[in-house]
Amino acid sequence: MILASCENIGGKRVVKTIGLVKGNTVRARHIGRDIAAALRGIIGGEVSEYTKLIAESREQAIDRMVEDAKTQGANAIIMIRFTTSEIMKGASELLAYGTAVVVQDE
């Protein structure tokens, strides 16, 4: 599966547009990570606990989006975007979405 955040893929042409595909995950914060993050807030630096959490969430959302595209017969996803929203205090959704297409070599 080819993934691209742009409209075109070099050396390929879109022969069929399938449509919107998406994948999401909702993650809640963990009290242990919150304590570590609070300490980092005091001393400064990267909050690696949250960096890891968001990276894992992004990968899971991408995997789900790819599965959605595969079930519809796509071999590429273009115009990929990400969005987040707070579902409730301490829990957020990460959504990956794009346009599923079939591409061929030019």
Supply database-style keywords.
single chain; alpha+beta; Translation Initiation Factor IF3; four-stranded mixed sheet; 4 strands
For the terminal residues, how far apart are their CA atoms?
A: 17 Å
Structurally, how many domains make up the residues?
A: 1
Helix content: 25-40%
Q: Assign the CATH class.
A: Alpha Beta
Cα-based radius of gyration, to the nearest Å: 17 Å
Most strands sheet: 4 strands, mixed
What does this entry look like structurally?
The protein is of the alpha+beta class and 106 residues long. The chain has one domain (2-29, 59-105): 2-Layer Sandwich (Translation Initiation Factor IF3), CATH 3.30.110.70. The chain is 35% helix and 44% strand. It has 2 helices and 4 strands, in the order ββααββ. It has helices at 31-43, 48-71, and strands spanning 2-3, 12-28, 76-88, 91-105. Strands 1-3-4-2 form a 4-stranded mixed β-sheet. It is elongated. The model has no long low-confidence stretch (mean pLDDT 89).
